[in-house]
Amino acid sequence: MSITDSPPRAGTRTARRRRSSDRGFNRGFRWIAVGAGVLILVVLAAVALFLLWQAWPALTAGGDELAAEVPRFPADTSFLGYVGPLVFGTLLAAVLALCLAVPVAIGIALFISHYSPRRLSQVLGYLVDLLAAIPSVVYGLWGFLVLAPVLTPFWLWLNENLSWIPLYGGQASTTGRAMATVGVVLAVMILPIITAVSREVFLQTPKLHEEAALALGATRWEVVRTAVLPFGRSGVISAAMLGLGRALGETMAVLMIISPGFSYSLDILAAGQHQTIAAYIAADFPESTGLGINTLIAAGLVLFVITLAVNMTARWIVARRKEFSGAN
Question: What are the transmembrane regions (predicted)?
């Protein structure tokens, strides 16, 4: 028997079987991944279609019909006119929370990633992650029973001394049940999300970038400003948008703290001026029937569209900033 006619070795047959098995696993994993991606799209489309189907009666009904069946619905007002103050209150609460939380979260993330000792950074990281595990109803109780009485003197001081600023004008609440308190509580709630994502992004900064800045004589702050922050810009934006999405949809904490109202007011210290969509749905759903339920679902559809728009805008910003990242 010649060399060319010799039977294949056992190792060669085993390698072939292994490659064939790997190709089978690769195809299986590919279809599983594709199925997962399609599934999330199907679920999202199903939610959107359900909201649109259930909200259609309220969207097409007249103002008089809605006023007759929906509590607190003013006469001679369309659905868009009714939901407008709710949208305004939702966006106002989310923007206040974002303005308060983002600077603090970036500072905490930078301290954990570049300033604190390793043991202290691990403890702080655990504590920050623990804040995300606290239920929203606990935040609501804390905000209503503890934070609101503590902040009330400060809100009254702002109203007396800085009333020329539109946010602090009007009649300040003596109980603290105002949009300002809601903004502080929401800021605490979204703080761990923004901090955790920003911390992981800052830790991924290439060491060569930091060492190059130090070799050129940069201080610690200059390293952070010239190397860390430019590299993590897109990640910080993504973290802020995640926190914004949490603030937009928060329900129980807002419901337990705020004194509701329907107006386009910037007086964040006044009571009875604002309400959010999520808190409005939670408050009115148990007593609603018929067209009232359709109206609540229509408000939920509006919140769904707002959240979707926020996430799409965040993706666009991240994609636009990616080419200017410090990693490139």
Answer: 28-53, 86-112, 124-157, 177-197, 251-271, 291-312
